[in-house]
Every structure is written in structure tokens, then in C-alpha cells.
Amino acid sequence: MSNSKFPFPRLPDDICSEVLKTMEYHEIIAFSIISKKSSSMVQSLCLPLIRAQIVMGWPEICLDFGSINVLFKWKMGENDKEMTSLDDIPVSVAVKFRRFNPISESKTFTWSNQGKNIGEWVQHLRSIFRCGCYEATFCVLNTRLDIQSLRNTFPKFRKIVIMCLRNEPTEHEVQSIGNILRAFLPYVENLRLQRVPLQENLSIQHIGMTNLKELHLESLNLKLGDLSTLNVEKCIIIRIQFSLLDLNRFFKLWTKGSYPKLQSLLVHGSLESFSDWNILLKGLNAVVERSTADDSQRLVKVKRFIMENSRGVCAQVLVHSAEMVSAVTFTVSNLNRLSPEIWKF
Amino acid sequence: MSSTEQGTSSAAPAEPTTAPESAAAPEVPESFYYVHGKDKVVHKVSAGALQHSALIHGMISNLGYTEEQAKANPFPFENIDGDILQMVVDWCNQHKGKPTPPEDTNLPKQKEKLFDLVLAVNYLEIKELLTYCCKQVAMMVKGKSPEEIREIWMIPTDAEDEAAEKEAKKRAGKEAAGETAAAAGDAK
């Protein structure tokens, strides 16, 4: 190809669109960044995007087109520097194009920052594709995110993960976490909180009241007893310290009709004491599986029982407990408590 | 294969080839049509080759020209350069009655020529060739950064676009004012 130039804007619009359609996604994105006109030309193609996964902190966005994905990874400075706000301007961006089918192929390019800050990059990328599924991971470290710029920059997320990277987060970090939750909690289906400090203005009661499909909690100061309201379908709680009494209270609330949407619960952590199973079963009217062998000598104790709530819904509970770690699985079943199949879990 | 009736000597006159037919089938003589571009050089093309062009195919399908009539009335494409039309005719002849391959390496490598070819092919509505041309245009920016794409494809900046838009508005305003003045003069 000779070095002379090609007057692309002088081509008829429909030809421009045809040319763009033959290009790879990262090339289309590169074209869209050039000018407002080129951006609107790409927008008019209405290109579908299956899923966009955004990571803030060490910012990146993965655009999933099916058998192809394009990963944008912004470099914020030397020594793997993190971003602090959406106004931060990256040094450069690494663009990784990956094809999985029919043959695996991967190419990485380095682009300049295009004079855009992180917020503008995200806004641009979400403006040029039609995507119904956005997911985000916020790694909170020295982060300052205000509610308005969060709402202006990001779409409604289906899934959010918030990871607090400091044992004792700063005031700004706590405020940023609160802002993220306030901005997106009404729309999110799947929420995961990792090491997020739960406080008065950011309590588990607030989160539990939200309509969620899945809630994943990993918190240092969470108490099972705080889960008085839980409006989720699936709940996973890990790294928690709990007692048989806490579990008993939780299940008792369920049998009385609380947590009506709950389909499954997994609690994984340290069980304070598991010497007296009667504490767990007290008042539940549960049917306990008859133990076939004496497990008093076993390292891992297993307890299986079924219980029924006030609306006749049956749940299977499986408790594994050992010295260091215990796991409780609660699953709502469609089966009748008298069905022999109910014990197959 | 095309035959150049006048002008350039590059293309030697040649009779179009006809597809082999079974001995039992009656021999149907292939009809030919004539086209010329800006340079008035007339190209003889078979109806089969011209089927690639939806525009020409639409024009000729109901004409029922005899060889003499077709020769006397070449289709004029004054907006297409002679060498570009030659390329188009050659491509149509090469791909006459054949399935088009996924890639075409015979397209011009010079960007100026490719631009004219794209416009001509678009005008003549040759779908397959247009697809090749679009791929060729896209290939120019394969793996390029936004800055490189801007340079290769001569994409103006937002400021340049705005300035051009202002200029166009100004020009349109002046033209409208000129027309109004002329209309007023006529009325007097």
C-alpha cells in the first residue's frame, strides 16, 4: 500500500459504514475516538456488545463480543499507580484484542491517552455500543468518588463488586463506598462486598433490604444476627464468626416467614462452638437425619436436617463443622418434607 | 476480457469467451454491450459480465438491443475515469459466471485509485466488488492507533469539522442572498 492518504470522509456514509463493519472491534473503537463525527458514525452502526466488565482502582474495561473480546487497561503512572478519581488522566492505554474462535489469537497495542480522563474513556466506550450487561469491580484505595460523577459516568450495573483494600479505610474511602452503593444499589442484581466496613450509615440492614438476586458478603465485622432483613434470593457469607445460637435465630425467623425470597444461603467461617446441636435445632421443629455412624471421633462433624416454614416451604440444611472452619448450606426445596428425595442433598 | 474500440492501445481487442455448453443444447449467441467513461474509450462487455452491475443489468434487461444497436448506443458513465472503468470491466469479465472468492488481491494498491474505484463500484452497484473494496480500505488502518487512522484516512479534527461547517453555512447564506437578489432583480 502506498504512503499516500485516503480521503475516507469523502466516501458516501453508507460506504463508510460498510468499511467499518469489515474492521476489527479495536480498530472501530480507534476510529470512534478520532472525532465527534467518527464517534456518531460508529454509534449509528448499533454494534451489539454482550457484556462490559469495568474495573476501577487499576482501571480496565473488558468488552465481550462473544468469540472476541477487547481489553482496555489504562496506565495511571509509574509503579502500577492506582487511580484515585474519575478525573484522573492516564499516561497511556494498552489495548488487548483477543479472538477465541476459530483460532486463538491475541494482539496488544499501546495508544496515547487521547486527552481523556478515566471517566471520559468509560463514557465514550459505553456510548458507542449497545450493551445490556454491565458489571463493575471497585477496588477502593485512596479513592474519591462522588455520587454525581458515578451516575454520570457509569451505566446501570447488573453486578457490582466492592473491594476495600485497607484494613482500616480512610474517611474518603468509606464515603466513596457509600456513594457507590447509593448510586447503583437500586438497579444492581448481584452485589459482592469484600472487606467493606459495615457501619451505621452503611449497614447490612440497608443492603439486606435491597431487592437482589445474589448477595456475597465478606466482612470483618459482620454479625449473622444483624441479618434481620434479607430480601435476596441467594446469599453467600464468608469469613464470618458465628455461633449455633446465631444460626438458630436466623432459621427460626425463616420458619416464621421472614426472608421470603431466600432460595439459598451459604455461611462459611468460624463457628464458635458446635458441642451442643440442640442449640441449633431448638424450636425449629426440624427433622434431623439419623446418623448411621458415630461421628464423635471425626474431625469434621456433619449435620443434615430439614425444616418447614409457616407457608409450608421446605428447606434442607447441611452443616459441616471442624475446628477451624465451618460451613452451613441452606437450600429451599420444592419437595415435600415427607418425600424420600428430600434427603438427597 | 474486454475490447477497447477506440483510444487507448493497452487493451488488445479480443472476443469474449463464452461458457462451454453441452452439445445437445442449442447455441445461444452471447450478447454484448458497450460502455464508456470520462475518456470516451468504449469497452465491449458481455451481458454475462455486466450482470455483476445491478445498475447496468437493470438498464439492459429490457432493451433487447441488437449487436448494431448496442454498438451505436454505448452506455455513458461520464463520472467514471477511463482507467477506473477499465478496472471494473476487467473485474466483471474475470468473475463472469463464477462464484466470487472471499479475497481479491487484484485491487489497486494506490489509495487515490482505490477511492475512485470505490465510488465507481458504488455507482454501478457491483455488490461483491464493493465488498472487496471496503475490505481493502479497512486494511489500510489495520492495527493502527487513532492518530495513525486520522492521518491515513484524512479525518478532520472536531475544530476543523466545526470550521468547515461554519464555512458551509456562510457560503449557503451568501448563495441564498444572491438568489434572493437575483429574484428581486428579475421581478423589477
Description of the structure:
The complex is a heterodimer of chains A (about 350) and B (about 190). Chain A is an alpha/beta fold. Chain A contains 9 helices and 17 strands. In chain A, β16 and β17 (about 325-335) form a beta hairpin. In chain A, α2 (about 25-35) packs across α3 and α5 crosses α6. Chain B is of the alpha+beta class. In chain B, about 50% of the residues lie in helices and about 5% in strands. Chain B is built from 8 helices and 4 strands. Chain B has helices at about 45-50, 55-60, 65-70, 80-95, 110-125, 125-140, 145-150, 160-185, and strands at about 5, 30-35, 40-45, 75. The longest helix of chain B is centred in the last third of the chain and has 30 residues, at about 160-185. Chain B is flat. The interface of A and B includes residues 1 and 112 of A.
Walk me through the topology.
The complex is a heterodimer of chains A (345) and B (188).
Chain A: H1 13-21, H2 25-34, H3 36-43, E1 47-49, E2 51-56, E3 60-64, E4 68-75, E5 92-99, E6 105-112, H4 118-128, E7 129-131, E8 134-140, H5 147-153, E9 159-164, H6 171-184, E10 190-194, H7 204-209, E11 212-218, E12 232-242, H8 244-255, E13 264-271, H9 277-281, E14 287-288, E15 301-308, E16 314-321, E17 326-333
Parallel strand pairs in A: 1-7, 2-8, 8-9, 9-10, 10-11, 11-12, 12-13
Antiparallel strand pairs in A: 2-3, 3-4, 4-5, 5-6, 13-17, 14-15, 15-16, 16-17
Chain B: E1 3-4, E2 32-36, E3 42-46, H1 47-50, H2 54-60, H3 67-72, E4 75-76, H4 82-94, H5 111-124, H6 127-139, H7 146-152, H8 158-187
Parallel strand pairs in B: 2-4
Antiparallel strand pairs in B: 1-3, 2-3
Helix pairs in contact in B: 4-5, 5-6
Biased composition (Basic and acidic residues) (chain B): 165-177
Region (Disordered) (chain B): 1-25, 160-188
Biased composition (Low complexity) (chain B): 8-25, 178-188
